[in-house]
Amino acid sequence: MMRSVLNKFLLAIALVFSSLASVQAQEHGHEGEAPHKKEGFNVGDMIMHHIKDEHGWELAHGLTIPLPVILYSDDRGLEVFSSSRLAHDAVYNGYKQEHGKIHRVNEAGDVEEGVKLYDFSITKNTASLLLSAVIMLLLFTTVSRGYAKNKGKAPKGIQSLLEPIILFVRDDIAKPSIGHHYGRYLPYLLTLFFFILINNLLGLLPGAANLTGNIAVTLSLAVLTFLIVTFSGNKNYWMHIISPPGVPWFVLPIMIPVEIVGVFMKPISLTVRLFANITAGHIIILSLLGLIFMANSLAGASTSVAISPVVMFFTLFLNCIELIVAFLQAFIFTLLTAMYIGTAVEEHHHHDEAHGTVSELG
Amino acid sequence: MFAMLFALLLEATGSISVFGAAIGAGLAAIGAGMGIGRIGGSAMEAIARQPEAAARIQTAMLVIAALIEAVALFAAVICLLVATAA
């Protein structure tokens, strides 16, 4: 059976390449007819455009969903208008968009310095955030209503998809790391896990917003973790930072700054880990696809068509890896958050005494 | 030879800091590869010794691989900053 599958696959590839040969024969006729010289394809600009946030939601060339631009300035107050008014570098009502940032311009079209503009717009990332919030609300209210209806019976529908994942977060992430009081932190851990997972997966779709690759979003999640860990830290936690157990007194002047830096490095590492993993994945996929367009601008359309099957196969493979990375990064963020909460709430147990038993966790 | 390379880079991109950024990113990739490779190797050996513990070992391996990768990505982010600020 495998042999016939392999034979069919090889036949398909042979057909694709043979059809490319006929396309190449046609292309040569058209190459002399372009009257104007197009600018070469800039792959760096294309990648940055797809990674960054923007004021309208561009799904494809020419198809842009306009989003509200909300600006506050001290002299003019609150202004709300559609992002389509600022498209293609147009000047609207004294505002102009330059590389994604909105500036106030005077009549001559020069940027006015010194005007402090607060940008509260619903940008592409904000709209994606709201969309994923709506998705999460729908999913989990359905699940909870299903639990209320099917009390004691087997789960049906979307419940049976989410229940193993929720139990996984509870039994393999929360309970072993936090111990007895895992119930207090489980809502936050579940929200965190599903938020990161759903946004990572949404970001892989074409035309989607790169939300978890936005360092502001991951920083907010890490700050939430930091606040929870700080405010639930008991006396044991702070004593471990000031004087880690089993450390001789002359090492303490080195250990205390290291521990204090460690308190702040943990949220920073959470931020950078999630942001860099997701953004790097998107950049790799975009670079590979941009390779086709670079070949088009450097060597003509026939070359780009010829390399596109190989490039697309490799991009498919990388997309599968990105799916794994999406799950893995959500798991790692939640697991590390749970471990930090666990160190903050753990009870004192004897390290040095021979007769003391290690406190049972979980 | 390096003087020629730097002169070419300066003419092509306007600054030679991209050279450092590229080398930095490459070194970070080597570091991540070596670290995660060692973790993978130890995990393989441990699973071969005790196949019943395979699930726990695999979980621990994934966690440690993510931590190592975070450090490599720190370096990659800094290299990206250097390259785009050039």
Describe the overall structure:
The complex is a heterodimer of chains A (362) and B (86). Chain A has 362 residues and is mainly alpha-helical. The longest helix of chain A is centred in the last third of the chain and has 48 residues, at 252-299. Chain A is globular and about 70 Å long. The model of chain A is unreliable at 20-37 and 353-362 (pLDDT under 50). Chain A has two domains: 43-119, no CATH class; 124-345, no CATH class. Chain A contains nine helices and eight strands. In chain A, 61% of the residues lie in helices and 9% in strands. Chain A starts with a helix and ends in a 17-residue tail after the last helix. In chain A, the strands form three sheets. Chain A has a three-stranded antiparallel sheet, with no helix packed on it. In chain A, strands 5-6-7 form a three-stranded antiparallel sheet, with no helix packed on it. In chain A, strands 1-2 form a two-stranded antiparallel sheet. By secondary structure, chain B is mainly α. Chain B has a domain at 31-86: F1FO ATP Synthase. Chain B contains three helices and no strands. Chain B has helices at residues 2-13, 17-49, 54-85. The longest helix of chain B has 33 residues, at 17-49. The mean pLDDT of chain B is 88. Chain A binds chain B through residues 172, 269, 272-273, 275-277, 280, 328-329, 331-332, 335, and chain B through 59, 62-63, 66-67, 69-70, 73-74, 76-77.
